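This part of the workshop introduces the protein records we will be handling. Backbone structure tokens are a discrete shorthand for how the chain folds in space. Once this layout is familiar, the rest of the handout is easier to follow. The record below serves as our worked example for the rest of this section.
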Amino acid sequence: MFDRLIWDKLNEECGVFGIYNHKEASQLTYLGLHALQHRGQESAGICASDGEKWYKHRGMGLVSEAFGKGDLEKFSGHIAIGHTRYTTAGSSKIENAQPLFFRYAQGSMAVAHNGNLVNAAVLRKELEAKGSIFQTTSDTEVIAHLIARSECKDLPGAVKDALQYIKGAYALLVMNENQLVIALDPNGLRPLSLGRLGDAITVASETCAFDIIGAQYWRDVQPGELIVIDKDGITESKYTETTQRSICTFEYIYFARPDSDIDGINVHMARKRLGKQLALESAIDADVVTGVPDSSISAAIGFAEATGIPYEIGLIKNRYVGRTFIQPSQELRERAVYLKLSAVRKVVEGKRVVMIDDSIVRGTTSNRIVRMLREAGAKEVHVRISSPPVMNSCFYGIDTSAREELIASTKSVEEIRQIIEADSLSFLSIEGMIDAIGRTDSAPNRGHCLACFNGEYPTEIEFEEALPALKC
């Protein structure tokens, strides 16, 4: 994809949304997916039920592209789940678009999943050896097969049974005609929150999805928690006692929308504090501070406030580029960053500019933005990064490059500075980042996953055990 060739940022995972006990469940889910669009732009889908009949639709592209005129008009029901997808496991095609829908011995179910299973390949191989036939390349289908193989006759019991075998990151929604089952992995690697809308209960990857439908935030789903919502009310339980909060730190740095709250911490305010901490660690004499839109703007404002250097909009993002699949030449590739960004010449011309960004992955985009600012007349360009160097790949649902492609895995800060052609370069320290975000957990690293920074993964990455018979 053209976009991936020119924009070497970390890519979002997916977004999930669900609602129970609302007569317009499907329509509200559609709105919720719009709020979560930033988490995935490759496909979207909704499954709903009125207690007897199912209503299903999936499509490729943005939410507005996946659902055409009239697609939702035929939908009915009081329960629905939705998903917007960025490909991390399985290729980008309609078969892998979620929610996935299945008919099995106990009836029907739909599954939506945000995250990656680190033992999916081993489980898939074992399941295929035992006769399972897979229709997709998504690791989400592994979960569905485990549920279907369970000896438990009820959906919540079968889900709980299946969760004993999977490892990795998962914010999971499973529904049948009358129940909504919600589960979060034992490390809480992905965010997942509950809200209330009158008598309805809703669940979403981010709290910003509640705002768009007028729901009120209730609480966060806890690591290792299983929640069942049906006509009898809400049942909350733990499917494992072996839990340790390790939320992806990049939710605060880059992925989540600024208006979302994660574990009670507002993302915009956390990013401002990251910028202020960056200023404490690596202040520089300059004339103007600017942020790479959109996720770095909050950190840039914080940096400007802490240093007293004026903040200006020095870079403008083109929001109407769309998606293109052409194969560009090297020359076009070098210029293609201008499709997404342009410099404001009157802001940066003749100025010493501090450019704030949230991360450096391969370094190609950083180099092009520095060049762009110089071409617009910037006298100096000082790059400040509101996270530590990304040195390791993620296996939990973030599309990072192979480790050898991550520039910080083989290059020093000075070498990276030379490659991106900046006058100076500094990254935020791990300790400063944790302090700035402000989590107060007693868990190691205050409940953060820091694997991409320090290589310490909260779960096993390879799971070699054979699959035993599934029993309740």
Q: What stands out?
A: Confidence is low (pLDDT under 50) at residues 1-7, 323-327, 463-472. The longest strand covers residues 107-114. Residues 385 and 427 are 5 Å apart (CA to CA). The longest helix spans residues 267-282.
